[in-house]
Amino acid sequence: MSDTQPTPNAQRHSGDYDPHASSLRGEVDPGVMEELLAVRGSIDNIDATLVYLLAERFKATQRVGHLKAEHALPPGDPGREAAQIARLRRLAEDAQLDPAFAEKFLNFIISEVIRHHQAISASRAGDGADPLT
Ligand SMILES: C=C(O[C@@H]1C=C(C(=O)O)C=C[C@H]1O)C(=O)O
After folding, report:
1. More confident residue, 66 or 132
2. Atom of ligand 1 at shortest distance to CA of 57?
3. What's the 80 CA to ligand 1 centre distance in angstroms?
4. Atom 16 (ligand 1): residue with closest C-alpha?
5. Residues 51-100 pLDDT 10s
6. Ligand 1 mean position, distance from CA 119 (Å)
7. pLDDT tens digits for range 95-130
8. N or C end: fewer C-beta atoms under 10 angstroms in the chain?
């Protein structure tokens, strides 16, 4: 990359991350290690993308949290969640991803979102609780 090009966020904020860090050094054939590192480069790119996607999703759900608190709506919406989970399970099947994993992953995220919504609502109610935002 030339000096005049802006550095992508993923590289700018990677700190002292060593993409070659491994406990396998010296134990693996150098050719195998080379291939492993090439694949790990893709894994690192995917992980960085996941972080950015999750950050955007949480920005959106925080807006929903404030809207719900403002209008005294409950933090969770089980009807919406059931529809989301059914949809994600179908998408996972199409993508050859384990649907049970997709469901568990979405439930994990949603439970964190609901926790945030509860905190937003509590802080609006003036009970001194810190919002998790
Ligand atoms: C974001 C919302 O709040 C909760 C979180 C959801 C999510 O993370 O997708 C979905 C439903 C709600 O339980 C919402 O109601 O849309």
Report:
1. 66
2. 8
3. 7
4. 64
5. 999 999 999 999 999 999 999 999 999 999 999 999 999 999 999 999 99
6. 14
7. 999 999 999 999 999 999 999 999 999 998 875 555
8. N
Ligand 1 close to Cβ of residue 76 (< 6 A): yes
Taking CA atoms only, the protein residue closest to ligand 1 atom 11 is 77
Residue 73 Cβ inside 6 Å of ligand 1? The answer reads: no
Confidence of residue 3 (pLDDT cuts 50, 70, 90): very low
Nearest alpha carbon, ligand 1 atom 6: 110
Structure tokens at 50: 């996941």
Q: Report the separation in Å between the CA atom of 81 and the middle of ligand 1, taken as the mean of its atom positions.
A: 7
Mean pLDDT, all residues of the chain = 90
Q: Where are the domains of the chain?
A: 20-124
